[in-house]
Amino acid sequence: MDLFVLKTWLQVKFNADGERGASMVEYGLLLALIAVIAIVAVKALGDSVSTKFSSVNSSLN
User: What is the Cα–Cα distance from 13 to 27, expressed in whole angstroms?
Assistant: First the structure.
C-alpha cells in the first residue's frame, strides 16, 4: 500500500512539473515573438515617427 501511495505521488509530482515547464517554454516563445514584432515595427516606422515628433517639436517652439 505504501508503494502505491509513493508511486501516485511521484506521478502527480512529475506530471505537474512537466506541464509547468511546457508553459514556461510557451511564454518564452511568446515573449520572443512579441520582441521580434516590436523590433520590426520600430525599424519600419522609426524614421516617419521621428520626423513627426521633430515637426511637432519645431511647431511648438
Answer: 21
Q: State how far the Cα of 46 lies from the Cα of 39, in Å rounded to an integer.
A: 10
What does the pLDDT look like over 5-30, one tens digit per residue? Answer: 877 877 777 776 556 666 778 888 99
* DSSP states along 11-22: HHHHHHHHHHHH
Closest alpha carbon to 48 in 59, 56, 60: 56
Kindly report the pTM of this predicted structure. Answer: 0.50
> Could you tell me the pLDDT band of residue 36, with boundaries at 50, 70 and 90?
very high
The DSSP output letter for 37 is: H
CA dist 25 and 15 (Å) reads 16
| Cell, residue 58 | 519645431
Q: Residue ranges per domain, the chain?
A: 21-52
